[in-house]
Amino acid sequence: MRRGGEGDRGQVSIEFLGMTPLIVLTLVLVWQAVLVGYTFTLAGNAADEAVRAGTAVAPGARQAACSAAGLGHLSAAWRGSAEVSCGGSGYVTADVKLHVPVLFPGLIDFPATVTGHAGAVEEVKR
Fold first, then answer.
1. What is d(CA 36, CA 105) in angstroms, rounded to the nearest whole number?
2. Fewest Cβ atoms closer than 10 Å to its Cβ: which of 49, 51, 68, 105?
3. Distance CA 46, CA 66 (A)
4. Global pTM?
């Protein structure tokens, strides 16, 4: 004679093994969403720093100062594919374009580009 419930022995383990791929996929998607958000944050911060540096120099040296400041605030994983451009007279703007990494920064990137934009009024030296 069998006692009730012994036929279900090990069922929780089997169900957990069945759910493991779904749990792992959910964690991977959440991590990728974190990387997308972090890339947006980095692009915005790099654009802010680039425009700040660009307003403090003469117009002829603006692009070099902007690029150096924008790239200087990025880690090596994002710096490789970064593009920094500055322009304007009176009102200086900076655009930073970054690629979103796939799972691990520095290995491969999505073809999509994240853009950070910033602007500031040019400083007048007296």
1. 11
2. 68
3. 9
4. 0.77
Give me 52's structure tokens: 């700040």
What strand order describes the sheet that includes 83-87? 83-87, 91-101, 109-121
The reported pLDDT for the residue numbered 80 is 82
Q: What is the pLDDT of residues 11-24, one digit of tens each?
A: 788 888 888 899 99
Give the helix/strand (H/E) hosting 80: none
| SS3 readout for 14-71 | HHHHHHHHHHHHHHHHHHHHHHHHHHHHHHHHHHHHHHHHHHCCCHHHHHHHHHHHHH
Q: Is the pLDDT of residue 75 over 60?
A: yes
Closest CA to 59 of 82, 91, 96, 83: 91
